[in-house]
Amino acid sequence: MHCGRYLPPPLSRRQFLSRCGQGFGALAFAALQAEQAEARGTSPLAVKPPHFPPKARNVIFLYMDGGVSQIDSFDPKPLLDREHGKPFSAKIEPTQFDNIGTTLKSPWKFRPYGESGIPVSDLFPHVGECVDDLCIIRSMVSNFSEHNTANYFLHSGMGMQGRPSMGAWIGYGLGTENQELPGYIVVNGGLIPSGGIDCFGSGFLPATYQATMFRPRTEPVANILPRENPPSRQRAKLDMLRRLDQGVLERYGEVDAVESAIVNYELAFRMQAAVPELTDLSTERAATKRLYGLEAEFEPTRLFAQQCLLARRMVERGVRFVELTCPRTKGNDRWDAHSNLRKNHRENALATDQPIAALLRDLKTRGLLNETIVVWAGEFGRTPFAQGSDGRDHNPFGFTIWAAGGGFKGGFTYGATDEFGYRVVENRVEIHDLHAMILHLLGLEHTKLTFRFGGRDMRLTDVHGHIWEDLLA
Predict the structure, then answer these.
(1) Model's pTM, two decimal places?
(2) What is the reported pLDDT for 173?
C-alpha cells in the first residue's frame, strides 16, 4: 500500500532520455515535415493539380531559330524538281522580300524511313531513323512573316513583346516537381533569338515563372556558385534579405517584384547544391556520350549534344519545361537561309540531327518519352522559290514542325501544303492549336488556364486554340 502523501522518486536524467529519446526524434521529424509541407503549399513553384489526368509531365522544346525549310526537311515536293529554274507559276504573297528568284528544287534527296515509310530529307538521317515516334505536322501556319513578331507569337501566342511565354504559362499552371531547380529552363547554345530574351519572359505573370538561362559549358548559371566562406554567412545574408522584403510586404501588401525576389533568392540558394550535380556529365556512360555526339568532329554538334543530354537530365529530375536554342555555326545566320541555302542548312542539320535523335532514343529507353513532349519547331518555314540564286525567303503560309512522345501519335503525318510547298491546302494548324494541344496533354484545359490582367482573363491561346484529336494517340 502507498501513503496518499507518497510521491515516487523523480526519474534520473538517464532514465528520462532512455524513455523519451525516440519521442524527440518523432517531434523533430514532424516539425521538419510540417515545414516542408508549408513551403510546398506557399511556394508559387509548388506542384499544382492539373484540370484532368495528364498524359505528359514535361516538355522539351527544340527551338529551330530562323525557320527551317519544310521542302528541304520533312515535306518533299517532286514538282519542284520539274519546275527548277523556271519562273514561279503560283501567286506570290506581297509580304515576300525583294530579289525573288526562280523556282528552286531541294538540293537534298528524300527517302522513306521506319515501318511508317515516311520520307525524310538526307539532311536528317539520324532523326529519320526515329520517324516512327514522330507526329509530323505539314500544315502549320503563322500570323507573322518577320522574325521578332513570329518568335513572340511562337513562344507566347501573341506577336508582341512582353507576353508570358509558353514555359511560363505551364509553370504557372502546374508548378514544378523539383523545388531545387527552376520550373522553366532555357539552355542557350549561343544564339539568343531575334526578339531577345523576352521570348522566354513571364510577362504579366509573376516573375517567378520566367525562364532561367543555363549554359551547356563553363559555369552553367551565372553567379550561382557560393562565394561565401563559411556558407553560414551567405545563409545569414539571405535571412536578412527575407526579413527586409517581408517588412515591405507587410507595409504595402502584395508586390510581385518583392515576392518573386524572395522566391528566387531562396531557389538560387538551393540551386547551388543541385546545379553542379545536374550538369556533371562525367557520370554518364561512354556509350551514351557517343550516342549524343559528344565526341563528334563538328564542334557545334558537340555543343548541341551537351544541350540535349542536359535536357534529358533535367526532365529526369522533374524540370517542367526545357527549351534549347541553336548552336552557332560559322558563317550562318541561324536557319535563316536568305542566301547560301546549302551551307546554312547542311551545317545546322549536322549540328542538331544526331543529338536530337539520341535524345529521342534515350528518353524512350528510359521510359521517359511517354511522359515527355518533345517539340521541334521554328517560327515559320521557307519559300519554294529562290531569294537571289541560292537562298529561300520566309514562309509563314505553310511549314512543318514535329512532336514526339507525351501523347502525340507516332509514325504519322498530318495536313498538307500545295504541290509547291508554299501554302496549306489541308488541315490547317495554327500556333494557338499547338499551344492548346500541349496544354491538353499536360492535363490543362487551355480555356481555363487564365490570369486576370488589364481587366480581363488572359490566357496563352487568347480566344483561339483547337485540339486536333487526330494528332493524339
Answers:
(1) 0.87
(2) 98
Residue 400: closest CA among 121, 158, 165: 121
214-222 contact pairs (CB < 8 A, 24+): 214/185, 214/186, 214/187, 214/188, 214/279, 214/310, 215/187, 215/188, 216/187, 216/188, 216/189, 216/303, 216/306, 216/307, 216/310, 217/303, 217/306, 220/275, 220/278, 220/279, 221/271, 221/275
Alpha helices in 404-450 (DSSP H): 431-441
Average pLDDT estimate for 277-281: 93
Q: DSSP for 259-288?
A: HHHHHHHHHHHHHHHHHHHHH-GGGS-HHH
* Beta bridge partner(s), residue 59: 321, 373
**Residue 192 has what pLDDT?**
87
Q: Which CATH superfamily is domain 42-222+298-471 in?
A: Alkaline Phosphatase, subunit A (3.40.720.10)
User: pLDDT by residue (tens digit) across 284-318?
Assistant: 999 999 999 999 999 999 999 999 999 999 999 99
The domain ranges of the chain are 42-222+298-471
Inter-CA distances, 157 with 64, 83, 251, 417, Å: 17, 36, 37, 23
The whole-angstrom separation of Cα 462 and Cα 289 is 42
Q: 149-163, 187-201, 386-400, 418-432: which has the minimum mean pLDDT?
A: 187-201
191 grid coordinates: 544564339
